[in-house]
Design goal:
The protein is an alpha/beta fold. The chain is built from 21 helices and twelve strands. It folds into three domains: 201 residues, Growth Hormone, Chain: A (Up-down Bundle); 195 residues, Growth Hormone, Chain: A (Up-down Bundle), CATH 1.20.1250; 227 residues, Vaccinia Virus protein VP39 (Rossmann fold, 3-Layer(aba) Sandwich), CATH 3.40.50. A hairpin with an 8-residue loop joins strand 10 and strand 11.
Length: 696
């Protein structure tokens, strides 16, 4: 029995620890968009479904044939890892030759990379939980195999929580991949031993009853199987939607992938660990409370603190998923139907992932997945209550409780609908793609300061005045450190043309600071941003009005800059602006030491790197200062309060231009390397980043 428990636990640990590992490797290649994790989740859920299908079909075979099939799949998966280790720097991780090219479908590229790098090992791991439980039932028919399912979820939970706290901070990605491969080898040994033992097993005759009292001969109804699909689909959709919402509003980092998924797994442990799930009334009350809290935080929008968002959505996710999975625990079948039950469960989970990753972007022009999934759980809970059968005073109580639940569901749906409609204020256009939801919003209509703003989520990503269309708006206004980086640059005083690069072009506001003879190179990953900045819809005209030459490089800016350096074509920028954000969250791969080293290598000798720091949740100024200190470059920071048409904005300039640093507007606040007290903040690298270090 110990061998079974060890194999189930280790396989689950590996199954879930590989997810943040691969997600972190692929995130920078696709612009750090929250949809990267959504697509990864879709891949993992679909392969899990295939694994459970494998286990269900093989469960009909004699134990000896099952064991031989598992050993064959093990050889295929292990051989693939060995081949990767010999042909690439490390097993499991996609090699640099697989980096995506701009203009291709990002979801398709992501799924293909995951399939090539981890498809077979993940398929093997996906088959093990139901297969090993079935073998356990063959050896010990009188024991309850669902206990191993709770152990499997505990292993998954540990694998997830270990990543941000015990793995990511201490091991680079390649070392993580090698460690994972080593544990996979240990699991292979366990699986060989269990397979050899299973070959000698004999399938016992069908038992009359489960420990819970269900007959194995009792036919399954289609309604019951439909609930086996509906409940996990609702829980899975809630998981993906809540994760997406957190990443949109806070940051796209492994911890915010791991935390919701850990709560999701904890709900399985709570539901299946005690046999028949937790009491329904208590779960309904908990979900009603946390869903109401989550709706309140949604209405607060960007004003809500990250911790508040995490607590509200996390509580809603845990309560909702525990409710869903407790209903599943009450519906669990006889152990002889265990593989079919798990197949339906994984199919429901995949349906929830497909809804969020593939259907929602087509059906909705904004993020409504969270609204739909929260309402879906509530409606399922209402419909599953069943008829009131009592005929005395308990009947009145039953009807009263049903009425209260119906009122709560109605109010929840009404509040979610009002929140969804609330974002329609003066919205002129809206578009959704892999990189997020964008909309054009009109502010101060009819007044002298009327302006059009491009919004990503609840955050302004550029704007233009409708009456004075040549005036720089938003954080690019006159008086900001960015404006002075161009105005006070030695080349500007010498009357010479400038080369200006922008990572994250927004609506092209930087063009308002350019002159004839200047050359702008704009890096932008979102094709809809490029279209609107070029003038689609007639909203923005900075690029159309500028006298400077400009070119747009579509795709992830860091990958584009790396390709240019590999070709021996550094940008030679006199000013390079970094202002790339996903809603309120900056892509982490654009803030690492390696990224800053790349930016600085693209500067001209008198070049200035300008980094936009404004963020409601994260102290980016502290991080950027630490990166500049790590690289030994002087820096200058300016925090502009709102004044007139100049918006409040924070910028940091990093440069080695002594002429610029000596300017009277700059010199008093310029900081040389080593001049300021040492900051204990650990520099962010491609292998390490800690969101909690820079939370306000």
């Amino acid at each position: 029995m110990a061998l079974d428990a060890a194999a189930v636990f280790l396989s689950a640990f590996l199954l879930f620890s590989v997810q943040p590992l691969l997600g972190k490797q692929l995130l920078p290649w696709f612009g750090g968009a929250p949809a990267v994790w959504t697509a990864c989740m879709l891949f993992f859920q679909v392969v899990l479904l295939l694994g459970y299908l494998w286990a269900h079909l093989s469960s009909r075979m004699p134990p000896r044939r099952q064991a031989l099939l598992q050993l064959g799949l093990l050889m295929l998966a292990g051989g693939g890892l060995v081949w990767q280790a010999l042909s690439s720097p490390s097993p499991l991780l996609p090699g640099p030759d697989m980096k995506p090219e701009p203009g291709q479908d990002p979801v398709g590229q992501l799924l293909w990379m995951l399939l090539l790098s981890a498809g077979t090992p993940y398929l093997l791991l996906s088959t093990l939980s139901p297969t090993l439980q079935a073998w356990f039932h063959l050896r010990w028919p009188g024991e309850e195999p669902y206990r191993l399912y709770a152990l499997s979820n505990a292993g998954s939970l540990l694998g997830l929580l270990a990543y941000p706290f015990a793995v990511e901070p201490f091991l680079p990605l390649r070392a993580q991949a090698w460690a994972w491969a080593g544990l996979f080898g240990a699991l292979a040994v366990l699986l060989v031993l269990l397979s050899l033992r299973a070959m000698g097993a004999v399938r016992p005759p069908a038992e009359a009853q489960t420990p819970g009292g269900e007959s194995s001969a009792r036919p399954l109804s289609w309604g019951r199987m439909a609930l086996w699909l509906a409940w996990p689909a609702a829980g899975s959709a809630l998981l993906v939607a809540a994760t997406n919402q957190l990443c949109q509003d806070v940051a796209v980092v492994p911890f915010l992938w791991v935390a919701p998924l850990a709560l999701y797994l904890l709900s399985f442990i709570l539901a299946f660990g005690r046999g028949r799930g937790l009491p329904r009334p208590a779960l309904l009350c908990a979900y009603a409370a946390f869903s109401s809290f989550a709706v309140f935080v949604l209405f607060r929008g960007p004003e809500a603190l990250p911790l508040t968002q995490l607590l509200s959505l996390g509580g809603c996710l845990l309560a909702g998923c525990t409710l869903c999975h407790s209903e599943l625990a009450r519906l669990r079948p006889h152990p002889q139907r265990l593989s079919l039950f798990y197949l339906c469960l994984s199919a429901g989970g995949a349906l929830g992932g497909i809804f969020c990753a593939l259907l929602a972007p087509v059906l909705f022009d904004r993020y409504l997945e969270l609204h739909v999934s929260m309402a879906g759980v509530a409606v399922l809970a209402l419909l599953s209550a069943g008829p009131v059968r009592a005929r005395n005073s308990r009947a009145f109580t039953g009807y009263a409780m049903r009425s209260l639940r119906a009122v709560w569901v109605f109010l929840l749906i009404l509040a979610l609908a009002l929140h969804a409609r609330g974002s329609e204020r003066e919205t002129l256009a809206r578009a959704r793609n892999f990189f997020g939801v964008l909309r054009i919003e009109r502010r101060f209509p009819g007044g002298p300061d009327e302006q059009l703003l491009m919004m990503h989520g609840s955050v302004i990503h550029g704007g233009q005045y409708t009456r004075e269309r040549l005036a720089p708006a938003t954080a690019f206004g006159e008086g900001t450190a960015l404006a002075d980086a161009i105005r006070l640059h030695p080349r500007r005083f010498a009357g010479q043309p400038m080369r200006i690069g922008v990572v994250g072009m927004g609506v092209g506001t930087i063009a308002a600071h350019a002159r004839a003879g200047d050359h702008l190179r704009l890096y932008e990953i979102n094709p809809q941003v490029i279209a609107w900045a070029r003038g689609e819809g007639g909203f923005f005209s900075y690029l159309a009005d500028t006298a400077a030459a400009f070119e747009i490089e579509a795709g992830d800016a860091r990958l584009a800059l790396e390709r240019e350096m590999a070709r021996g074509q550094p940008g030679g920028f006199h000013v390079l602006v970094v202002d790339a954000f996903n809603s309120a969250s900056p892509p982490v791969h654009l803030l690492t030491v390696e990224a800053f080293r790349l930016y600085l290598s693209h500067l001209a000798p008198d070049g200035i790197l300008a980094v936009h720091l404004s963020n409601a949740n994260l102290d980016l100024g502290r991080l950027v200062a630490r990166q500049a200190e790590e690289l030994g470059w002087p820096r200058y920071r300016r925090d502009n309060p709102p004044r007139g048409r100049t918006w409040g904005a924070s910028w940091m300039l990093i440069t080695q231009s002594e002429k610029f640093l000596a300017r009277p507007e700059i010199a008093p606040d310029a900081v040389r390397p080593g001049a300021a007290p040492a900051d204990a903040l650990r520099p962010w690298t491609d292998d390490f980043s800690n969101l909690f270090d820079i939370l306000y």
